[in-house]
UniProtKB/TrEMBL annotation:
It comes from Brevibacillus centrosporus. InterPro entries: G6P_DH, G6P_DH_C, G6P_DH_NAD-bd, NAD(P)-bd_dom_sf. Pathway: Carbohydrate degradation; pentose phosphate pathway; D-ribulose 5-phosphate from D-glucose 6-phosphate (oxidative stage): step 1/3. This is Glucose-6-phosphate 1-dehydrogenase. HAMAP family: G6PD. GO terms for molecular function: glucose-6-phosphate dehydrogenase activity; NADP binding. One of its GO terms (biological process) is glucose metabolic process. The gene is zwf. It catalyses: D-glucose 6-phosphate + NADP(+) = 6-phospho-D-glucono-1,5-lactone + NADPH + H(+). Its EC number is 1.1.1.49. Belongs to the glucose-6-phosphate dehydrogenase family.
Length: 499
């Protein structure tokens, strides 16, 4: 891996502390950083290099997945960091920053390979890239790359405008748009599951699959982020990016070659085939919810509107479920259901593939029909793959019952999303970053939903905190003869049969 300079805008912020420094440290320990590197942190506050280095050590000790910290390795790691106080809205302030970068490049005798990471509020994305360009910071004899955090725009138009601005300073191949769900090991593993296993490869289509269910449930509420969340809701915060990225990763088909460009082209094809929604029919395809008061892990929690910083009559969605159709030859007729919400019963991100069940008729003499085969991909917090199959139970008069063959990895010490993503960006692999076309197509699909929510064409259901969302989310699947699998709900309606 080539030596480089990493310029981190937002170096004193929350994301840097909780995710970026621990990820860089773990890469360093695993010898996945270049042999020589320089990291320049940028923030507004007036810190010395020593104060900055002390804050990095503290954040690694607090947030790293590795609890043991070797003092000597830590000293060597933090020695690579320097701090530069810059108000990013001031173009003049970029010249001293350029000087610092150059001095370090000269002192370490490293080439002008520069990675810029924008870990700042989105209102600064534009001005920073423009100042990188005009100051000469982005004029290098080596490579330059830009890592950019979410959110990428607030709607289609603002995303397009942002992209246009970025592309005046960086080429598309130089831009790495972070979607941390693409850094989750099991989401990355979808590619191997589908492409490296002929068994699944053969089944991955509408001949064998009845429906696909993608859930990202959280037990946390809005926490201290009302200022941001009350303007975006689950539809922008989770659906436009993470949920649609998981859908693309699940539905994509084997490319001719396994390269970043080919994989991203496959994902784009999926998104291009997603059936656009008409505003008038959105209430039939999309469920909107907001949490009320309830119990989470035996603790009473307040409803969304009573959370600090939330508008008293807020109509913000904290839950969204949707039925998505992909009109291509592989998936025609297979509903993909997506569902995400805050203050749900459990923290669980999973993808469940329900296979068709043509043998149902054979077992008509049994009171209960055999359950469908399910492929369960657990993304978070546990990671693993499980297959639900039917088997005779000798202790129950040979009755056919579902059993689960479990290949779960549990919660073993696996690299975090930010480690995997930063490592990829450092070596110039953009496979697991969102391409502009994916982002644009996602916004295009979401746009009529935003309008329908704004115009109140979709009812806002209140659901109790600690539940699986509003009943309307269950009804969305029941209408097609399906149910959400694996919910720990106490009672369920009998499963209607479907062919
Ligand atoms: N925190 C998280 O868990 C997540 C964050 N993100 C995204 O990451 C980005 C950063 O978020 P987060 O770390 O939480 O934000 P914070 O508010 O914690 O940090 C903001 C950073 O920006 C710096 N900053 C603000 N204004 C200026 C300015 N005019 N000039 C220079 N620096 C400035 C601050 O420096 P100083 O304090 O010194 O003024 C600080 O380092 C956002 O885009 C967010 O959406 C994405 C996913 C999760
Ligand atoms: O991007 C976001 O993701 C988190 C959920 O991430 P996870 O890795 O814990 O599943 C979500 O809480 C947050 O609102 C959103 O901005």
């Amino acid at each position: 891996m080539e030596s480089m300079t990493f310029v981190l805008f937002g170096a004193t912020g929350d994301l840097a502390k909780r995710k970026i420094y621990p990820a860089l440290y773990n890469l360093y320990l695993d010898k996945k950083m270049p042999s020589t590197f320089s990291i320049i942190g940028v923030g507004r506050r007036d810190w010395s290099d020593e104060e900055f280095q002390a804050s990095i050590e503290k954040s690694v000790r607090t947030f790293s997945r590795r609890s043991q910290v070797d003092a000597q390795q830590m000293d060597e790691f933090v020695a690579a960091f320097r701090y530069c106080a810059v108000d990013v809205t001031d173009p003049q302030a970029f010249f001293p920053l350029l000087e610092t970068v150059k001095q370090r490049e000269a002192a370490l005798q490293i080439p002008e390979n520069r990675m810029f990471y924008l870990s700042v509020a989105p209102e600064f994305f534009d001005v920073i890239t423009s100042n990188i360009k005009t100051s000469g910071l982005g004029t290098t004899k080596g490579w330059k790359r830009l890592i950019i955090e979410k959110p990428f725009g607030n709607d289609l138009k603002s995303a397009q405008q942002l992209n246009e601005k970025l592309s005046t300073a960086f080429e598309e191949e130089e831009i790495y748009r972070i979607d941390h769900y693409l850094g989750k090991p099991m989401v990355q593993n979808l590619e191997a599951l589908e492409f490296a296993n002929p068994v699944f490869q053969a089944l991955w289509n509408n001949q064998y699959i009845a429906n696909v269910q993608i859930t990202a449930g959280e037990t946390v509420g809005v926490e201290e982020r009302a200022g941001y969340y009350d303007h975006v809701g689950a539809i922008r915060d989770m659906v436009q990016n993470h949920m649609l990225q998981m859908l693309m990763m699940t539905a994509m088909h084997l490319p001719k070659r396994i390269t970043a460009n080919d994989i991203r082209a496959q994902k784009r094809q999926v998104m291009e085939a997603v059936r656009p929604l008409q505003k008038e029919e959105i209430s039939q395809q999309v469920v909107r919810g907001q949490y009320g008061a309830g119990e989470i892990l035996d603790k009473h929690v307040v409803g969304y509107r009573a959370e600090p910083g939330v508008q008293p009559y807020s109509m913000t969605d904290t839950f969204v479920a949707a039925r998505v159709w992909i009109d291509d030859p592989f998936w025609k007729g297979v509903p993909f259901y997506i569902r995400t919400g805050k203050r749900m019963k459990e923290k669980s991100t999973r993808i469940v593939i329900e296979f068709k069940n043509p043998l149902e008729q054979l077992y008509q003499h049994q009171q209960e029909k055999p359950a469908p085969n399910l492929l369960i991909i657990s993304v978070n917090p546990d990671e693993g793959i499980a297959l639900q199959v039917n088997s005779k139970n000798p202790s129950n008069s040979g009755k056919i019952e579902p059993v689960t063959v479990d290949f779960s990895a549990g919660t073993k010490d696996v690299p975090e999303a930010y480690e995997l993503l930063l490592f990829d960006a450092l070596r110039g692999d953009s496979t697991y970053f969102a391409h502009w076309k994916e982002v644009e197509l996602s916004w295009m699909w979401v746009e009529p939903i935003l309008e329908a929510f704004r115009e109140n064409l979709v009812p806002l259901h209140t659901y109790p905190a600690g539940s699986y969302g509003p009943d309307a989310s269950e009804e969305l699947l029941l209408a097609d003869g399906f149910q959400w699998w694996l919910d720990k709900a106490p009672e369920r309606e009998p499963i209607p049969s479907h062919s």
